[in-house]
Each structure stands twice: as C-alpha cells, then as structure tokens.
Write a structure and sequence with these properties.
Strand order of the largest sheet: 2-3-1-4
Bound molecules: 2'-deoxyadenosine-5'-diphosphate, magnesium ion
Helix content: 40-55%
Number of domains: 1
Number of helices: 7
CATH topology: Alpha-Beta Plaits
Strand content: 15-25%
CATH superfamily: Nucleoside diphosphate kinase-like domain
CATH class: Alpha Beta
Radius of gyration: 14 Å
Order of helices and strands: EHHEHHEHHEH
Largest sheet: 4 strands, antiparallel
Distance between the termini: 25 Å
CATH architecture: 2-Layer Sandwich
C-alpha cells in the first residue's frame, strides 16, 4: 500500500553536499519526492522531535546539533515507504550499518549519522505535521 514517510537529511549531510546522492537513492527505490524544504529547525521543534530521548545524557547535544545548520526535510511516497526508507537508511549506528546503506556509506558516528527517517506510519504522519505545518 502506498504511504508517506518523513525523511530529513541532517546538518552534516547537507554541509557535506550529500543531498543529491541521497535523494537519488530514494528515487531509484521508487519512493517519489512529494515535498521538500531546506530549512533550519527551531529548538522547540527539535526537542519535540526527539522527545522520546529526553532522558538520555546526549539529549542536549542532539538538539544543539540538529539545530546547528540547515536540514533537508522531505516527504517521500510509495509502497511501504516507511519500511523501505528505513532499510535504505540503515541502523542508527553507522558502525553497524552495512555498506550500501546511507548510514553505512556516509555516517561518521552515532551523533553524525547523516539522516533521519520515521520509524512507523503513525510517527510519519506526526512528523509530517510537525515539520511541514
Ligand atoms: P534513529 O535515528 O535510527 O531512529 P533513535 O530514534 O533511537 O534512532 O535516535 C535518534 C537519534 O539520536 C539518532 O539518529 C542519533 C541520536 N542517538 C541515538 N542513540 C545515541 C547515542 N547512544 N549516542 C549519541 N546519539 C545517539
Ligand atoms: Mg528514531
């Protein structure tokens, strides 16, 4: 079934000029770009987005980092978009991500893992609302 996923290239990916390559991977997988914006996100939006990690010792750094420069936020649509996007992206820690995945190819550490992708269709809807409204 066709669904939408929220995907966001983080400041390290934008800064390193990886937007074109990453977008192309989604397109080649059949996930169509239906909306995109290069923007800086507010501290409030970042804290809400990472609310599930509020108790973690790295929370402050995570919020500082994601607000440190522009992100490339996008909505992609296609068959099982959430699962397909997560599999293109790879696991959270780039050291555990296989070559061929975005994090496996480009991630330099768990705090610099290049890209975010929604982890469920429910969260995808929430994130689309949060970042595009
Ligand atoms: P994912 O981004 O794969 O959905 P997550 O939702 O658990 O992973 O965490 C969100 C982000 O928080 C993750 O992309 C990078 C950061 N993060 C997670 N675990 C971390 C850790 N142990 N140390 C530093 N940053 C971490
Ligand atoms: Mg997550």
């Amino acid at each position: 079934m066709s669904e939408k996923a929220f995907v966001m290239i983080k400041p390290d990916g934008v800064e390193r000029g990886l937007v074109g390559d990453i977008l192309s991977r989604f397109e080649k997988k059949g996930l169509r770009l239906i909306k995109a914006e290069l923007k800086r996100i507010s501290k409030e939006t970042a804290e809400e987005h990472y609310g599930h990690l509020k108790a973690k010792p790295f929370f402050g750094e995570l919020v500082d980092y994601i607000t440190s420069g522009p992100v490339f936020a996008m909505i992609v649509e296609g068959e099982a978009a959430v699962r397909n996007a997560r599999s293109l992206i790879g696991p959270t820690n780039p050291a555990e991500a296989a070559p061929g995945t975005i994090r496996g190819d480009y991630g330099t550490g768990v705090e610099r893992n290049v890209i975010h992708g929604s982890d469920s269709p429910e969260n995808a809807s929430q994130e689309i609302e949060r970042f595009f409204n």
